[in-house]
């Protein structure tokens, strides 16, 4: 068995967010301590982050055949780095040194032949395979928690599938391997004057395949909001063979094969390639922030902007608590972060119209005014830039907040405009009451819009609460699970989706079952039975197999 890591990427922090050699800036550390002080947790000595040697992992159950020795690692670091995603619960369990279901090994396939050999081995030995991209799942999508029916588990890391295979500058599209990281793709496209322009919060670590199979949300607040809007064709290798679609600008030939791959979360097979629709790099930009007295006025303004055919690239609302937590204004207010961009023409006219709409709802332009690409003013004065930087860096803060016993987590959804006012009020009041009851301490609950549509917004909620006063993260985990469950119940009861762009995984199964038809899920399980007849692909995520590994037909576990 391999005794060294087969990874070729920069070493990630196995227990938390980021690369192993990254640290918070002095300013960020001060911000984290300020939050800890606000919750009266600063006097508690933070829990020490774990080291690889702190874990007593169960021995690997694998007997790796010679043909796979070159691609399968069983080192403790690799097993730990692929044991969880990056949710609050994942990080808390790492701090507790509790990893009950580490993968027995990690495969690093170099090509599709390696994948086929891995599938054959897994089917023969009844081994579950867990596809792994950048490992940034926050919904249990990559955790090898597959029950007791399988002999072992292998995490399938796709990092060697990292090439830009073809670029069509005329049609503005590219053929990309699924393991290519977001930053690497953007760097490879830049000489062509092109960009995918799809930036999830996890952008530095996310892979093309990970984005596609989780239907990730990205840069554009309107228009191309999800990665599937930018997918032209896909190639997926399954245990039963290859499923490949034809790259076309559009097709009405039956149900879309690509749409079946998008959001499949690795339960059918492994995505290896995708043709993606690209953008020319923007040359014209205009950004502004608009302040409103409250969230409801801001939401009304955004609704009209989203229905006016203006298609802003950025149209994100921060409620009063979100503004206060991120310190992006010197007064109590809700803020609309507004932006337009184009590769072909100036966008000032569109910005002017959007600001006129905002004025109807008593919106007032932020003190930095309108920032255009001709401006060279200090970006630090820009509320939009300030919030964006905090948003990208927030997962790093959670590394230290968790050590202080503070639960810092999010959940996101989408809801129609007619239901939003009551929905927002209910979430803020009822979930807030739940957090207060569970913790008996002060808490913070805020909301922002990540994406908006003519028929409704995508609200994204963030909450902070004290999970433990004395470093008892087991107690904190129990509180987190109850808050998580209540959030899914409230979203389902009031007509939202359990996830707008974070995927289902294992953690969101309850909410997914509330909003989908049992017959639909059985239909998806039927497709899985064709692609994955032995049920080895990511069991427990999204749906269950029609047959368990012993070959006994039964009712799906979620029905």
Describe the structure.
The protein is of the alpha+beta class. It has 5 domains: 26-157, Uridine Diphospho-n-acetylenolpyruvylglucosamine Reductase, domain 2, CATH 3.30.43; 164-280, Uridine Diphospho-n-acetylenolpyruvylglucosamine Reductase, domain 3 (2-Layer Sandwich); 284-386, 2-Layer Sandwich (Alpha-Beta Plaits), CATH 3.30.70.3450; 405-512, GMP Synthetase, Chain A, domain 3, CATH 3.30.300; 516-559, no CATH class. It is 31% helix and 19% strand. It has 15 helices and 19 strands. The strands form 5 sheets. A 5-stranded antiparallel beta sheet has the order 5-6-10-8-9. Helix 1 (26-38) crosses helix 11 (383-403), helix 8 (295-306) packs across helix 10 and helix 12 (420-439) runs antiparallel to helix 13 (473-493). The protein is globular.
Salient structural properties:
5-stranded antiparallel beta sheet, Uridine Diphospho-n-acetylenolpyruvylglucosamine Reductase, domain 3, alpha+beta, globular, 5 domains, 19 strands, about 550 residues, single chain, Alpha-Beta Plaits, disordered C terminus, Uridine Diphospho-n-acetylenolpyruvylglucosamine Reductase, domain 2
Topology record:
Layout: H1 26-38, E1 72-73, H2 76-81, H3 88-95, E2 105-107, H4 112-125, E3 127-132, E4 152-157, E5 164-168, E6 173-177, H5 182-189, E7 194-195, H6 208-213, E8 231-238, E9 241-244, H7 257-261, E10 270-277, E11 279-280, E12 284-292, H8 295-306, E13 314-318, H9 320-326, E14 334-342, H10 348-360, E15 364-365, E16 371-372, H11 383-403, E17 406-412, H12 420-439, E18 443-453, E19 456-466, H13 473-493, H14 509-515, H15 518-531
Parallel strand pairs: 2-4, 3-4
Antiparallel strand pairs: 1-2, 5-6, 6-10, 7-11, 8-9, 8-10, 12-14, 12-15, 12-16, 13-14, 17-19, 18-19
Helix pairs in contact: 1-11, 3-11, 3-13, 8-10, 12-13, 13-14
